[in-house]
Amino acid sequence: MVTLLVATTLDPASIGPASALLAMPGWQPGPSLQDIPSFVNGEVRLLKHDNGIVAEDDLDKRWEEATGEVVDEIMFFSRHTAVSNRPALTVHPIGIPHLSEGDIPPQGGKPGWAALPSPRVGPWLRLLKKIAETHNLIPEFEVTLEGTHHGPVTNSPTLFLEIGSTEEYWKRQDAAQAVALLVWEGLGLGGGGSVGNWVRNDNRNKVLLGIGGGHYAPRHMDVVQKDGVWVGHLLSGYSLPMEDPGRSKGETNGKDIGGTWKQSIKVALEATQSAFPGGEVIAHLDHKSFKSWQKNAIMAFLAEQNIRVGKPDDFL
Questions:
Q1: Are residues 274 and 210 in the same domain?
Q2: Average per-residue pLDDT in the chain?
Q3: Which of 37, 176, 213, 246 makes a 20 to 30 Å CA pair with 90?
Q4: Per the domain annotation, does 197 fall within a domain?
């Protein structure tokens, strides 16, 4: 079982952390995958390709077919863009579960799909914040989650590690070093224990499924920053398309509400359950981001799926 790390030479926020990581001890050249070079360190494999980071689908499956090594998880280094241009270090799961068949994904992936979220998302967010504080990147950089979005298609538990939000920051060596240290420590490459391994018989087996809110999931962040919280998919409001049936001030049957919101929740839920076998997935709603008819419909649908809605203390 190996961990696959993926970087692209086209992106300074991707190749920067990868290069910083490769400068650390223990790396050796590995086999090429269809002209993509690799580097090996223990059970970790790092690939450097020359395409857009969301353009190379099924890299984990292709690696398995080429080498016979089973990929346990896959992680991507990438840049982050934001209208605010604020410097940021972000962690997030991937997928576009709200898109319908025939829709053209704007940033890779396939419609109606969500990757298995890496169990490391929550623990690594907290570790990244500690590393950023130690290296004096805070408060200049915000360390935050992002909602589930974009591709590429993967078959293994997946997370993205991003540096934002403009070219000035994509090239920052101190930010690249912080992300590299996160991977180095998080995977135990320095000899310590790895961070964020899911253990199904752990007594802290509650997993947050975030529903609603903005792209940076502020209400969910309030919960996830607490030690011991596991994180599944995070569906921002734009990933929950709901069509007002015109009776928003009265009783509304969830069946009357169009849009792909049910599909989005179901796909994200099933992927989260698969990524955390034996865990209890609990929905955490950003209540203030919904109108009453939306919240009522979502909560009724979650009840149909036998998923309870939790408060912050329910995840501790």
A1: yes
A2: 94
A3: 37
A4: no
